[in-house]
Amino acid sequence: MSCWTKKLLISVLLSESSLSATDLEPKSFFNLSSFSVLLLFLLSFSSFTATEAYDPLDPNGNITIKWDIMSWTADGYIAVVTIFNFQQYRHIQAPGWTLGWKWSKKEVIWSMMGGQTTEQGDCSRFKGNIPHCCKKDPTVVDLLPGTPYNQQIANCCKGGVLNSWVQDPATAASSFQVSVGQAGTTNKTVRVPKNFTLKAPGPGYTCGPAKIVKPSRFVTADKRRVTQALMTWNVTCTYSQFLAQKTPTCCVSLSSFYNETIVPCPQCACGCQNTSQPGSCVDPKAPHIASVVPSTGKNNYVPLVQCTSHMCPVRVHWHVKQNYKEYWRVKVTITNFNYNMNYTQWNLVVQHPNFDNLTQIFSFNYKSLTPYTAINDTAMLWGVKFYNDLLSQAGQLGNVQSELLFRKDKATFTFEKGWAFPRRIYFNGDNCVMPPPDTYPWLPNGSSHQLISTLSLLTTLLAAMAFLLGYA
């Protein structure tokens, strides 16, 4: 919400609260209250600017696009554009990022290295050298691994895949070089592009306007000289799961050693089976499954899920496994129900108050996240490289699992009222659907406690009534 919006809202609310009851007739009071409600409703839509998308577990996460002009040419400049993924746990998967913008003048792209535009556009007005792209709104994609060296620059050619900043900072950036013509040849004549868009690979990111910043500085390989860009501007893009997809992408199921109840993912958590439309999901027992499911290793952004009650591409199961005198153990299983996707470099973010006493974790990497600074209740988990960092497509191999050993804190530890289960779980940066709290596995004596307390109350009431009637 902008400062102006906040001030306007506060002033209206204060003006209402300052009026006494005698100053207001019933009709005028109703009209004024209605006006305030209408104002609040309108402001709820206008309070989100282009780049406001807040993630409570990663409040500073964003993707920053840095545009560095490195040299001038006869009619423009040569720039290096770098996309930095500063999100702690959300990465860009195959088929990778797509970056677009709109030129402010009549710019063209003469040539590119490390990237390419998806369309050339109409270059018929050029008689000699033909530009790489003449579109007013070009769209750029990364080159694939294995691109010839004479077409590469540093940090290019990853197929548009960017890992998260915590998981692998060395692969969290991607660059390409662009030679721009008809653009001006000084800092005063160059105009920054407008309307930046980022798809990674689908929607979800909203980019703010380009802002001219202090020119970037570069240290030479021998670290004895520092050079700098001629001009630099930055663009910040933030993610919203609501914009990325209409339905969630994962769900959570729960179980425990002290209760036979297995709490499944909520029904229709990620959508419902469409029985009227054949092929909406895949029955793993169907005889023609081989003809429906694509060959292993081919990723498709559109999910093709196994038929389940929840219809989610990914399910995370949290099982309270064992209880010791000083410790307790949890087993976490991630199952892939998506036949169209191998999740490479997957990660899991879990919020639970006992992560400040995590003693040991098996077969997963672990890093503590502290979104609330002093409170250590959030952990990021991901697979060990070349061992289980690939979550295979739906099937027998489509799951990974690990166990976590927690030390008990006698002041807070309990198995009652669902305390042992996570508060929130993210898979690859998307918030998973949790079961309703009243369905969590309870201790076996939980219901008996409730019955005893009810019987005690009834007995006390009957005794009191008998006492009063006896002395009436």
Automatic annotation (TrEMBL):
**Can you supply a Gene Ontology BP term from the record?**
plant-type cell wall cellulose biosynthetic process
Q: Which GO terms describe its cellular component?
A: plasma membrane; side of membrane
Q: Which UniProt keywords apply?
A: Glycoprotein, GPI-anchor, Lipoprotein, Membrane, Signal, Transmembrane, Transmembrane helix
Query: Membrane topology type, per the record?
Result: Lipid-anchor; GPI-anchor
Pfam families reported in the protein's UniProt record: COB_C, COBRA
InterPro entries per record: COB_C, COBRA_pln
Domain COBRA C-terminal residue range list:
249-441
Q: Which compartments is it annotated to reside in?
A: Cell membrane
Q: Where are the transmembrane segments?
A: 451-471
Task: Spell out the family assignment given in the record's similarity comment.
Answer: Belongs to the COBRA family.
Protein name from the UniProt record: COBRA-like protein
Q: Which organism is it from?
A: Gossypium harknessii
Lineage start: Eukaryota, Viridiplantae, Streptophyta, Embryophyta, Tracheophyta
